[in-house]
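Appendix B. Chain record.
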Amino acid sequence: MNDVVVVGAGLAGLVAAGQLQRSGLSVKVIEAAPAVGGRMVRSPLQMEDARSPAWVDLGGQWVGPSHTRFLALLEAHGLRRFPSPHDGDTVLCFGSHRCTFSGFFQGFPEGQPPSVPSRDWDDAMAALKQFQALVASLPEGHPHHHPDAAELDRLSFQDWIDAHTHTPFAAWYFAYFCRAVGFLGPAEPDQVSLLHVAWGQRTAPQGDHPEEDLIHGGAGQLPALLAEGLGDALVLGEPVRAIHQADSPTGPGMEAAVDVITDRSSHRCRAVIVAIPPALAGAIRFTPELPADRLALQEGMAMGNCTKVLIAYGRPWWREVGLSGISLGDRPWVELCADSSDPETGLGVLAAFVVGRRRERWAALGADQRRSAVLEDLAAYFGPRALEPLEYVEKNWPQEPFIGGAFAAWMPPGLWTRSGDALLRPHGRVFWAGTEVAERWPGFFEGAVDSGERAAAAVAALLG
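Structure tokens predicted for this chain:
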């Protein structure tokens, strides 16, 4: 019998397993998919022009200066970083208007504003000031015990947008933010709780520059490195179907046991860490049954609706015309695109995101139509050279059977105040991990690492 079974070999699960092993406990890690990594996976580019092996991250890729736990992991495994390319102008397309300006990434402006009509920009910035005041009023940690939590959670983010913006540009600006940022699924503003959006910005602020660096060779190389020390303790391709906690010890002087049941076997242990998104945990049968608030959490906390597209060229040609490779706008399919070129390869790589209801319509198209739709949007942002990539890669996260979406899961109105306590509360000897449950940097690598470390520490304390 192992001391601990960890369900899920994504970043959180691997971090938890490693910490438990270092504390002297025996661990079994069970992963449903045929490989480790979860939403942290890379893919090679087959391009002869590359100066060195070229990889792209199909999932998460960025790291920020305050992601101290994740940065320590990178350093421990000898993985090198480089600054996210952003020299040059950002492109904004809104309606029929296209402009370039300096200093803008993700949701919040820095530097020179875009040349949109002053009424539009002033409206957006006035609403932003009110939103930032709301964010500042929230406490550290999970937000559902805040005095105004019930009222904030009753509203959708769209309700707030409707009440605080007066121009189409300002309304789009906040809707884009809801679809673009890592802790928000992505989700449409009418789907997600206002409390969730405000809390996410409080605990994972864009002002802390979480997209400051990229990783040579891709972030997706880290999970395999973390798994190297697990050996036979790692089981792949074996979905967990049930977790049964015995009512009493299994023999004289013994602790109560937990059985983790898969399609092929049963793994007995003293405690379990479930390190998968809440929606996926909903496919596991628990005995005794989970409490009502945890069941509601698993049913209601949907995964983000996102396809990530990587488009590779022989060189980052947009820089030759003074562009940063960062674009945003209300194009039909791609609202956000960022330069993800590793300077050691010499290639030009753009990471584009098709999200929310746009993705649902886009995913129904044929493969050639999807490719053309993305490239036409990139051409609107950057010019006709975008139409001729050397390689085009899609990662359709909602269709991944043991993941179900990306970037992360999100809370609809009412769920925080109904089920917030269930995110971290153990169920007997079952503990929870994963970036969704983190109190700091949810939806980012840092949140996954933090949750894995905290779950491992709680289990170690329980088992003595």
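Further analysis of this model is presented in Appendix C.
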